[in-house]
Amino acid sequence: MPKIPQTHIRNFSIIAHIDHGKSTLADRIIQECGAVSDRQMSSQVMDTMDIEKERGITIKAQSVRLNYEKNGEQYILNLIDTPGHVDFSYEVSRSLASSEGALLIIDAAQGVEAQTIANVYIAIENDLELLPVVNKIDLPASDPDRVLSELEEAIGIDATEHCLVSAKTGLGVKDLIDTLIDTIPAPSGDIEAPAKALIYDSWFDNYLGALALVRVFEGNLKKGQVAKIMGTKDEHQILNLMYPNPIAPIKTDEIKTGEIGIVVMGLKGVDALQVGDTITDAKNPTESIIDGFEPAKPFVFAGIYPIETDKFEDLRDALNKLKLNDSSLSFEPESSMALGSGFRTGFLGMLHMEVVKERLEREFNLDLIATAPTVVYQVKLTNGEEFEIQNPSELPEPQKLESIYEPYVKATILTPQEFVGNLIKLLNDRRGIQIKMDYLNETRVLLEYDIPMNEIVLDFYDKLKSLTKGYASFDYETIGFREGKLVKLDIKVAGEVVDSLSIIVPEDKARTRGLAFVGQLKELIPRQLFEVAIQASIGSNVIARSNVKSMGKNVTAKCYGGDITRKRKLLDKQKAGKKRMKSIGRVQVPQEAFMAVLKLDN
Fold first, then answer.
1. Shared domain check, 19 and 165
2. What is the pLDDT of residues 179-188, one digit of tens each?
3. 188 within some domain
């Protein structure tokens, strides 16, 4: 293979709102460069997980190295396909830290969406060269001129240099590749300097161990070289180096400045490779590490428990392996009276939680139950002490509390004008504070609200989609903590507090939520041989109650006539037995009850 100079390397990401055609365009670029034959080609070739293909979404950012010839000269294109959903924006920020430029894909029919705006700001922060690409121009409803003017109005970037493509048919893809070579700058970096490479992704391979996907910023990495991981100070020999390819990685002896590649060091431990860490040469180390992105901060917390209690260690092992593949995941052991031993797990959002639970069940063959998600709160006690809680059951008694601070987010919503009224009502119901309302054109409105994170983690996105018939788009970013009038709502089943059912709610909505929760649980908890009381309480004050009636048994069936006292005697005996059973009986709370909180607003 001819030696390709650093000036002929292009590192770029594809960013866009969900479902604007990123993965399809990546497929076409791969085909145009001839990296995958038509026989091996499949739809979403870079999406490797079954869940990605089934749901039609990208969860993991994927990289591929492509060779391309332009005007008789050979170029290397390192393409990173990123997720579009708001929960995976951390993947996007890592990918952009490894690129010099980004293709900003916009749907020619839908136009600018909330996630488009969010991703553009991440790209601008990383000082990347942006190339606007209008996709789906083959659709009858496409209007590229409107979309480009919307892009300039909503974001304020110059769209005179742009490309029009159809990723589905391949129209304009060759011109796009030629334009990106001219537009996106080549990587800078001194090839003679000590090796400095950023780990921007990692995963676990059953045969090769822990693998690091790196972008080399200076120097080079060679097979057989002893590398030092600067965060942990560990030194390991590089056993193998590979270039990423969707069909099978391509082996190489060296990864040079400006290139991306996979480093194999035979690591069996999953903690050795932290995303964001720097790899250098052990003998001649670099003096500075690469900084650029902070560790992901989880927003949503839920308890994950194995249904079979003896699978606790299997779950720990599975979470450790999954954390290497998904560094935004965090977890710590916890135990619950109702569910046994499990883990309090932190996620970036609701979709992230769904995906992680599904991956744990599929990839590690586990049966799991997840409790309703909550957010992290800051608590200040009357004695001046301050700390954070992730679980409502950790909240101290009301008399010890001075104040509770809850996380707020800035929500950006783009919606057709006809649904604005419905959305404003929804946002007001969820304690939203309006910051901005802009009419981008005669049909589309941009809403900006500050809203408590607690109000959007449960079913806000589903409500938003149903109220706007799927046309609105939504994105959010955290903006810190604010004091809230909040209380802990405890649920008692047969007199016992079920810790995993506790939730933190606004004080003025506590009674309504309590009544709704008790009503839901009454339908879900099976009838016992004795009457079961379900109560919602704040501290020692019960605010809602409902009873699950006992199962009847006709104990007088064997009495054929006779005096009423005979029947009375049998009924009294049954009554005493039920009373005794009630005092020693333990009610099994079914799995569905732990997710009943999601349906409270219905």
1. yes
2. 888 888 888 8
3. no
